[in-house]
Design goal:
The chain is mostly beta strands. It has one helix at residues 2-19, and strands spanning 40-56, 59-60, 66-82, 85-101, 108-113, 116-127, 132-142, 162-173, 177-188, 191-194, 197-201, 204-216, 219-230, 233-235, 238-241, 244-256, 261-272, 276-289. The protein is built from 1 helix and 18 strands. A 12-stranded antiparallel barrel has the order 1-3-4-6-7-8-9-12-13-16-17-18. The chain has a 4-stranded antiparallel β-sheet with strand order 10-11-14-15.
Length: 290
């Protein structure tokens, strides 16, 4: 039972950290400031995360599993005007290599394309003069990723549909400082082939606060704090993972090379996790605008 409980929470946390780069779980600073209608963006992400301890019900497991996640993500966005409001359509295609090492057992390693996400953000309030924005974005996760029920925790795909509802507010202060808040709710369908059983998961809630300011006209730094709760999981009606109580910090520096090219480096540091690995790692993002 311990193996089931501990390994089950690995994939969820790994996948969340890896796939939530920009909107679905882990926004970066200024992601919710809309580009002008007609703008197209292509973003590529590379990340490497390594666990520093493994937790079950808030207590660290001595000699627990070690987890490494390497990921590449392709994200494409298009901004347009619809009924006088700015809308952003986007598609996210992730790929992962997840390695789970349990003492005394062979490593469980899987590599492949993860589940595709599609979303459409709508800016319900968009005031450039006061630097105030409010947006809503629904996402849908399509279970297209590579999945093996006998290796469910390490598989890049999760073998279930999900929907995510994001609500974000941005307020600019002075010339180049921005404060942001994001509330996210993720609803999960059932995975009916989790090691041959049925996995059910409660709604996850993530609350994120961000702040950023310019160092130069072309470079800004940002900090992100995220709190997550919910997400209790049951296999065939038996609880295997309790509700989350997770806290994370991330620091980033972003440089605008020119009008079309931007790069960002981010350091991710879990402060506390209730279930699963406590991650530390880096993420590199490149954005091309046209």
């Amino acid at each position: 039972m311990l193996k089931s409980r501990t390994l089950r929470s690995v994939a969820m946390v790994a996948a969340l950290s890896a796939t939530g780069m920009a909107h679905a779980g882990d926004p970066s600073a200024r992601d919710w400031i809309p580009a002008p209608p007609g703008t197209n963006l292509i973003a590529a992400y590379g990340l490497a995360l390594q666990s520093d301890g493994f937790y079950d019900r808030g207590k660290e497991l001595k000699g627990g599993p070690k987890v490494n996640v390497e990921g590449l993500v392709y994200r494409q966005m298009h901004f347009r005007e619809l009924f006088g409001m700015t809308v952003q359509y986007e598609l996210i295609v992730p790929a992962f290599r997840t390695t789970i090492g349990v003492p005394g057992m062979p490593d469980d390693r899987k590599t492949g394309i993860g589940d595709i996400q599609a979303g459409a953000a709508l800016w319900l309030y968009n005031n450039e003069q006061t630097k105030t924005w409010f947006a809503w974005e629904p996402f849908i996760t399509i279970p297209t990723g590579h999945y093996q029920g006998s290796h469910a925790d390490a598989s890049p795909g999760k073998h279930r549909w999900t929907t995510i509802q994001d609500f974000a507010v941005v307020q600019g202060i002075g010339e180049s400082t921005f404060l942001e808040g994001v509330a996210e709710f993720e609803f999960y369908g059932d995975n009916n082939n989790y090691y041959g059983d049925t996995l059910k998961k409660d709604t996850s809630i993530r609350l994120t606060a961000l702040a950023s300011t310019n160092l130069t006209p072309d470079t800004y730094v940002g900090v992100r704090y995220r709190y997550e709760t919910g997400g209790r999981e049951k296999v065939n009606g038996t609880e295997v993972v309790t509700a989350a109580n997770n806290h994370q910090l991330a620091f980033e520096v972003t440089h605008q090379i020119n009008d079309a090219n931007q790069v960002q480096l981010q350091y991710i540091h879990d402060l506390k996790v209730e279930n699963g690995p406590l991650f530390r790692g880096v993420q590199l993002r490149y954005v091309y605008a046209f």
